[in-house]
Write a structure and sequence with these properties.
The protein has helices spanning 2-26, 55-67, 89-109, 133-145; strands spanning 38-48, 74-81, 113-118, 127-128, 150-157. With 177 residues, it is of the alpha+beta class.
Length: 177
């Protein structure tokens, strides 16, 4: 009796396997994942840290060069297709290096500095934003579309805007708060 039950179970399992294999052959295939848009040719973008010539900034750049293999103040990234947010690391890594330089400048001087990025070394190009993965990815897409090959960091002393002077009330105009 045990032998018959084993044979029936074996036959049942075999039929289930054959049924699932034949169903898999007939089942419609899932759509292929979307492929990234191809570019006509690869584009290499150089991200320059544009390190200021202050002691603190230069010391931080030396520290970066010592701790990041191959880092020389410029990060070179070649794009063969339009990047996705999950591939933003080289650019966010570049941002982090520039941010460390900015922080070193603030710490040594006691002053606040802003960090901005531009496609031209004289700031006459397009300003781009790299502070997070989404901004970095969108900026790189913009760079690729415009075939820009360089990005420069700029560190400028933060200057507060002067307070807005209160305007005199014009006759016939009332201002309510």
């Amino acid at each position: 009796m045990k032998n018959i039950i084993k044979k029936v179970l074996c036959l049942t399992v075999t039929l289930l396997v054959l049924t699932s294999v034949s169903y898999a052959k007939k089942a419609p295939k899932a759509p292929k994942s979307q492929t990234k848009p191809k570019m006509s040719e690869p584009l290499t973008i150089l991200f320059h840290d544009n390190c200021p010539r202050t002691t603190a900034a230069l010391m931080e750049e030396v520290s970066l060069k010592a701790t990041i293999p191959g880092y020389k103040g410029i990060i070179s990234v070649t794009y063969k297709s339009i990047p996705e947010e999950k591939h933003a690391y080289p650019v966010t890594g570049y941002y982090d290096c520039c941010e460390r330089i900015r922080q070193a400048m603030e710490k040594s001087s006691g002053k606040k500095y802003t960090l901005t990025f531009n496609t031209k070394s004289d700031k006459s190009g397009n300003e781009i934003f790299l502070s997070d993965k989404t901004a970095a990815t969108q900026s790189v897409i913009q760079l690729i579309e415009q075939k820009e090959t360089d990005v420069y960091a700029f560190y400028e002393e933060y200057k507060e805007l002067p307070p807005v002077a209160e305007t005199e009330q014009q006759p016939g105009i009332s201002v309510s708060e």
